[in-house]
Amino acid sequence: MRIGIVCYPTFGGSGVVATELGMALADKGHEVHFITYNQPVRLDFFSHRLHFHEVVLEEYPLFQYQPYELALSSKMVEVAEKYQLEVLHVHYAIPHAYAAYMAKQMLKEKGIDIKVITTLHGTDITLVGSHPTYKTAVEFSINNSDEVTSVSNSLREDTLRLFNIKKEIKVVYNFIDGEKYEKAHQAECKRIGLAQPEERILTHVSNFRPVKRTEDVIRIFYKVQKEIPSKLLMVGDGPDRLKTENLAKELGIEDKVLFLGNSNEVAKILCYSDVFLLPSETESFGLAALEAMAANTAVISTNAGGLSEVNVNGKTGYLSAVGDVESMANNAVIILQDDAVLDEFKKNAKEHIKLFSLENILPVYEEIYKSCSVTV
Ligand code: GMT
């Protein structure tokens, strides 16, 4: 099939899922066209079946805000017409679903029928989308998509609670390419450069937004390192990074915490890890936790949103209430203090990700494309 994918090209989970999906679809023989304002960060190869079309914004002094949706929907029309796209799969409702609706209407005028699939990812519903500023347009564009998917049952329920939705929302879990993590594990896992042999390694990966509660990560680690010799790797960047670094200094543990910034080498970094910390306020799915599990890492998380659909309490890790630093630290210590226990959690985590394998999820999206496409 000929598929357009619209996403944020950044390190955020929705962009990562969209990019991995596009690359896997191209691998399977589909023609995939990414339409966004930058080359997606995880897009690491090009082929004759994989294309990137940049949405260029013209600066004009009259505009206080550049009208991105207009440029995006015009680009969607141009690409859909030129490459005879059958479906447009938009990731993250704002503003992609709205721009896709506009593109669909413009294409209709040209006698072209394209199907729009909207995948809801989380904050487009729970934090930003339901805000009165955007709610009307988000609700409209969900209801006017041809197909709507959400990345967890929890997000589906949140969407139905927060909006007046008339469309069926299909739950399609995020997926992982387990092989990639296996390769990183076998080939490049040299943890000696980061920690002493007797030290455990804890990791956190996020965009350091307030919703990730990165200061809780530091507080949890502060308690853990009192009991267990360990290091903490902080991967990513964002608005709360500075205050998180400051807290590590204040607590006198800055020599045990490494801030690594944004990285394209998450699989390699995760292969050093024993425990992944994700104390988020809200999390529709927790792709970062799934990636950690694929790299043989136990997960200490909150029980917010869809996290319990990914992390199984007492098996792949533990879940605690948001803000309960004490409980998360105790649980991390339980896992880390005994080699046999740690190995069991790691093994369970690796086993559990099979539920979210690329081989299982990719055909589900293909089926959705086929069932709504006019040409098949
Ligand atoms: O978590 C973020 O801030 C990034 C955000 C995004 O839209 O890229 O992630 C959301 O989508 C991911 C992929 O589906 C999910 O794994 C994350 O849980 C979700 N984030 C939140 O719900 C806060």
TrEMBL record:
Domain of life: Bacteria
Gene Ontology BP annotations: bacillithiol biosynthetic process
Domain Glycosyltransferase subfamily 4-like N-terminal: 11-177
GO MF, one example: glycosyltransferase activity
Chain ranges of the Glycosyl transferase family domain: 193-351
Record-linked InterPro entries: Glyco_trans_1, Glyco_trans_4-like_N, Glycosyltransferase_grp1, Thiol_BshA
Protein name as it appears in the record: N-acetyl-alpha-D-glucosaminyl L-malate synthase
